[in-house]
Amino acid sequence: MTLFSFFFLLFLLCLHALAVSPAPAGRGSDQLALLSFKSTIAPPRGLLASWNTSTHHCSWPGVACGRRHPDRVVSLRMASFNLSGRISPFLGNLSFLRELHLGDNHLAGQIPPELGHLARLRLLSLRVNSLQGSIPVHGSWRMHQPHHA
């Protein structure tokens, strides 16, 4: 095997390793979930203007991130934000979420079953909306029932 062939093979192996590596969870995944949620709602003009890729999602209105995992969303507090639209199923990707406050808005449609994927969720407020369906109960919620306000 020539030296060129050896380095070419090494290059291909490295390229393959990069191609099959999973994307890291965290900032990107939580930010994408929040931006997907934003795309399904109609907030009052300017309210979520800072919800974009040029600012860190942990500084967005209504969003709080964790201390131990500073890029992971632990609380989404958007009660009484005068939001209309639907709840995005992508909120189910916020795997560190402990509190979801969406009450007192004008949200409609089905409650996404993907909310049942939020194993750390402890408080869920969806009251005073026009939502249909039941609150999904999956996984660890059976041991730790979230409080539904």
From TrEMBL:
The keyword Magnesium does not apply. It comes from the Eukaryota. Pfam families: LRR_1, LRRNT_2. One of its GO terms (cellular component) is membrane. Residues 1-19 form the signal peptide. Residues 29-65 form the Leucine-rich repeat-containing N-terminal plant-type domain. It is a single-pass membrane protein. Gene3D superfamilies: Ribonuclease Inhibitor. This is Leucine-rich repeat-containing N-terminal plant-type domain-containing protein. It comes from Triticum turgidum subsp. durum (Durum wheat).
